[in-house]
Amino acid sequence: ETWEPPEPLHRVKGDNYAPNNPNSDRINATLLSLVRNKEAKDLVMSMQDLERTWNHKFNYPWTFINDEPFTQEFKDITRANTKANITYLTIPKEHWEVPSWINLDLMHESANILEEQSVQYAHMTSYHQMCRWNSGLFYKHPALQETQYYWRVEPNVHFFCDVDYDVFRYMQDHNKTYGFTISLYDSPDTVKTLWPETLKFLAAGNSHLMSQNNAMDWLVDKSARPEHNTKANGYSTCHFWSNFEIADMNFFRSPAYEAYFEHLDRAGGFFYERWGDAPVHSIALGLFEDKNKIHWFKDIGYQHIPFFNCPNSPKCHGCITGRLTDGEAFLNKEDCRPNWFKYVGNEWDIGKSSAVAG
Ligand code: GDP
Ligand code: MN
């Protein structure tokens, strides 16, 4: 088996990735984390794993973002855990607050209904704000305007495998827009009107925005989970799990995505339902991007409770090969990667057969 994707892979040679080398081989990219002050310790766990397995070699800068100013304590503890540059940002108020067109009474009534359906975080307005911000606002922060690629990192995630090439350059050199590790079915009750709104958007003179090589058939697939597709009104609910993303912000800055987000934002489902940034990103990628520009980072061992991506590679330590979850057994059925491979193919299978042949 192969443990790395195909060449070209950009590696450390001499001081080409030294933290303060002004002519380093780093491209325009940052490790990006939306995080609260009280999550500092959990964030440090994620930082330590990512620094150990990858970033101590490449020294990409970290960017921390918060809806409140970061405390000195937060700055000190994060500063102590990397040699790379760090930027601390506060979100502009107008990017975070509940938009003026949202009816607060309707929002609270809707949360009651969601709660009856056992939707997590139904009444937590900040969670809805976070999902909206991650859907359509993060890349609009004034301090990120010159930044192209990001790797999203959450508090309390884990990385298990040594990665010995520059993943940002991989994205650029191989013409990739979006990289994921895990994809899952979503709770249909959180996105009941997301697909109908999407179809409305396309029907309102926007269908020309779709990619010639889109993944529509993946979005509407109902073979594995017909009941999800039915409850979500035509969307399979399969999505890239967005607590991990390595992606090109220019996709989100494109006129197609901009128009799509604007439509969804006006429709109000970030607050009247609980649309997640994961299904929103995934639907947009499936419609507006060439499906071959989406990459599965099989080689990046990753955990966000309760799911893992754990490759069978000698480069990985501390996770059990092939295991998706250490939670309840029923969670194994949440994996929808096979669905993606069915429609788009699995680049790693090609790697495997050529490795066998060669
Ligand atoms: P879950 O993984 O869906 O359970 O959601 P999380 O609680 O992990 O939130 C997702 C990400 O958004 C994490 O990086 C959190 O630190 C961050 N986050 C969530 N809510 C807030 C908030 O109100 N303020 C800030 N600054 N970050 C938040
Ligand atoms: Mn999380």
UniProtKB/TrEMBL annotation:
<keyword id="KW-0732">Signal</keyword>
<dbReference type="GO" id="GO:0000032">
    <property type="term" value="P:cell wall mannoprotein biosynthetic process"/>
</dbReference>
<dbReference type="InterPro" id="IPR029044">
    <property type="entry name" value="Nucleotide-diphossugar_trans"/>
</dbReference>
<dbReference type="GO" id="GO:0006493">
    <property type="term" value="P:protein O-linked glycosylation"/>
</dbReference>
<dbReference type="GO" id="GO:0000026">
    <property type="term" value="F:alpha-1,2-mannosyltransferase activity"/>
</dbReference>
<dbReference type="GO" id="GO:0016020">
    <property type="term" value="C:membrane"/>
</dbReference>
<keyword id="KW-0808">Transferase</keyword>
<protein>
    <submittedName>
        <fullName>Uncharacterized protein</fullName>
    </submittedName>
</protein>
<comment type="similarity">
    <text>Belongs to the glycosyltransferase 15 family.</text>
</comment>
<keyword id="KW-0328">Glycosyltransferase</keyword>
<dbReference type="Pfam" id="PF01793">
    <property type="entry name" value="Glyco_transf_15"/>
</dbReference>
<dbReference type="InterPro" id="IPR002685">
    <property type="entry name" value="Glyco_trans_15"/>
</dbReference>
<dbReference type="GO" id="GO:0005794">
    <property type="term" value="C:Golgi apparatus"/>
</dbReference>
<dbReference type="GO" id="GO:0006487">
    <property type="term" value="P:protein N-linked glycosylation"/>
</dbReference>
